[in-house]
Design a protein that fits this description.
N-(1-d-carboxylethyl)-l-norvaline Dehydrogenase, domain 2, eight-stranded mixed β-sheet, Rossmann fold, six-stranded mixed β-sheet, alpha/beta, binds (S)-3-Hydroxyhexanoyl-CoA, globular, 704 residues, 3 domains, 2-enoyl-CoA Hydratase, Chain A, domain 1
Amino acid sequence: MTAVVQQALRDGVSVITLEDPPVNALGIAVRRGLAQAIAAAQADDRVRAVVIHGTGRGFSAGADIREFGRAREQPWMGEVCQAVEACTRPVIAALHGMALGGGLELALAAHYRIAAPGTRLGLPEVQLGLLPGAGGTQRLPRLIGASAALDLMLSGRHAGAGEALALGLIDRIAVEGDLLEQAVAWANALSASGAPPRRSCEAQGLADRAASLAALETARAGLARKFRGQVAPFRIADAVQAAIEQPFEEGLRAERAGFLQCIDSPQREGLVHAFFAERRVRQIPEARSGTPRPVRTVGVIGGGTMGSGIAVALLDAGLHVTMVERDADSLARGQRNVGKVYDRLVASRRLTEGDKAATLARFTGATAYEALAQADLVVEAVFEDMAVKKGVFAELDRLCRRDAVLATNTSFLDIDEIAASISRPQDVIGLHFFSPANIMKLLEIVVPRQVAPDVVATGFALADTLRKVPVRAGVCDGFIGNRILYVYREAASHMLEDGASPYQIDQALEDFGYAMGPYRTADLTGGDISWAARKRKAATRDPRARYVRIADLLCERGWFGQKTGRGFYQYPDGARTGRHDPEVLALIDAERAERGIRPRAFTDEQVVRRYMAALVNEAAKVLQDGIALRPLDIDVTMVHGYGFPRWRGGPMKYADTVGLAALLADIREYEKEDPLFWQPAPLLVGLVQRGQDFDTLNQGSSHA
Ligand code: 3H9
């Protein structure tokens, strides 16, 4: 027996133990061990039943994701599951912690399932660009019906033990105590009663063929919109169709064909890259030297959109929040903003009145900074003005506990300057939330020069508490995300003035995988915000730089986007989806004429290439300046804060896929038209010269 799989005979029950920390992933050693153990149990006359369980954090998190992309070694997990299901003695899977992906498929191949309370069960393969490939697409629908199986497989969500029991995914929930003991006792009882193996492949969940096909059609109808450009969800639907219409063995073959198609696809590669990147962003230099300070009570200064969103994010995480505003009216408005979020949840039955009251009991308001004297951490979200922010920090310096963390939510101001203005710069950090702050996953943790390592570690720990994805960023105008955004938006506006329409640009990028193109997004966030940013930058802008006025011309007319009924699009009667606006196109035409620009046609591919070249070139400069630690930090930022399609892994991963030499060749071509805007990043040039890609830089750095 391999060390990662143990086997022992206990009261006539063969106990097979998965023991491969941290999560009992089903790598080749585990698969071999399992295959041997099942064969041994089958061959041993003393064995009356079999129990499979895992040690450590959970039963199993599924296939070993690190093996994807390498040569595949036998046995496949599908073959192991076949052997388990074929076993002639009852096989019981005893689940705890998590049973995910191939781990749940192994449990589905067992004949009976018991789970400890708190176990999370799911088939999250879709989130990795895959379909369940060890028989899950065939056994699950037979066991729990097409509709519930499609829901689990297409969402990839985890079901709790209670839901799993209700669905028929498991047979019983263990009582608190020794799970293995309960599973062995149950195995003995089953064999004593002569219970036969009960195979999922023979379950009757698809017996009503018409209802199953109808459920499949309903699920399929939503796929194109929800998973635009992705392959795996469609293959999941195909596999379920095979489960409904074909014998089990045929279905397994259909599943295998779909799985092989997905496992070798760039989408799987992109999603697996995103999975590991989302974990590696937490590996930062300060993790070694800084122990997070405890955070239970938090002050939020400002009750506007950002402040109230941040307050909700903190409340949702179970923290105590005090909001401070400058006067009673502003405070009441801030409190209303928070209250409205919970009212909506109650109205849509996602929260009970009781839970709302319990949450709001942790929320207090004040109009004086003294209320923050005992706070563990304070987040300032006031007006973006250096003098105003310094005023706030002077008050915090005077009043807050000496070990409090003082954070600013600024999106572009110089945090080094804010920190240097008070007596404890080591306690000052940037926590850049994205709007709506209670929804958006990204949290840029901006690390000023003088900050103490434990304050940085506190920022990362807070992100975990808030279930956000933290990215460490250095101080510069725009940090990682907005600095890059500014440049690729510029590239889009150049194309706009040169002949592309906002609608073509949006469509091309939506086809690329963005949920929304840049002009639809500008209309949603409000044109006035970026207008203010452009005005702010006007004084320091290089006078030789190209400046496109089209967005300003819209703003001058009061067309700020959805909130004013028109922007790049028209939103008649409060419509949420915009209509093309001939007046906007006429305005753009007039502006081109005024500037003497003869419009030229862009193909959608050219639009995407320029946009991505601008994005990646600036991202390389961000790396070179040390604003981002590694390319993967930029990938995570753009995926979780800026709508970059996760299935492409992020822009740096995408650039590696396209090839850096090709990307640089594009930039050099564009440079001929506008040498100032399209200066190739030296880091990019260096990588191309050395024949390296961005991933080389990911591998090279370790901050664990
Ligand atoms: C599949 O099963 C395909 C099959 O259908 C077909 C054939 C079998 N492999 O996230 P954490 C590592 S596809 C390798 O920080 P948490 C992870 O990288 C698979 N490594 O903890 C980390 O390593 P490190 C379907 C894995 O408590 C450590 O474990 N399964 C795997 O926040 C701790 O992870 C999934 O998609 C893995 N499968 O969350 C499940 N899983 O410490 C993916 C984890 O070196 N995993 N690691 O940084 C998860 O969703 C979460 O990791 C889990 C724990 C919920 C398990």
